[in-house]
Amino acid sequence: MKKNTLFTATMLVAIFISALAGCSGVSRTESREVSGFKHISISAFGEVIIIQGEEESLTIEAPSNYLRYIETEVVGDTLNIDTRRGFIGGPVRRVTYNLTVKDLNEVTLSGAGTIKIYALETDVLEVNLSGAGSIEIDSLIAKDLKVNLSSAGAIVIAGEVDTQEISHSGVGSYESGDMQSSTAAVEMSGVGSAVLWVTDELDVTITGVGSVSYFGSPSVTQNISGLGSVNSKGEHR
What gap in Å lies between CA 8 and CA 13, rounded to an integer? Predict the structure, then answer.
């Protein structure tokens, strides 16, 4: 299920890479000083790998003559990763950001990249995707999750939360069928899809032609004014 969900987003990123002008240069790893952040905003190209640990750190692996165009700055409690103005094109070789966080309350991806979070335990998390990429969280433990998806990308999350609130206005996919939640609210105005696992209460509003599917046996409130649909997938296995 996860592979199918991420396929479209992966293809979009691959197309983006092939269209970029190449950066030559030997691949090099560089460390950047980062600290005191709980929010991450990424608009640069590349793969971001996030783990939770006791000390914050960031290393970047990229072609040597591309590294100087990558800007990393902590403003307030937000770590911004961007590409400096004046750069035209992009790297053919892989760009990887290895980031360690103490805590994380918000992650935003607006570029054509990918974010992979292996495991995260936090109180509140907000996930925002407006680029043609993907965000994947292997294991999330949190009280509240808020998701904003306004692109053709994909978001895949597994784990357990108390509540999840989903705003879906793009053509992408949201997959949390392996993340148990007590309550969920979904507002969909695009043509995308969402799969959830809800045990108690599910509230769905659809004004587009999207589809919402769910595991579990919650009480369901639905308001559909478009050509959308709400479907039960039975109990989670």
Answer: 9
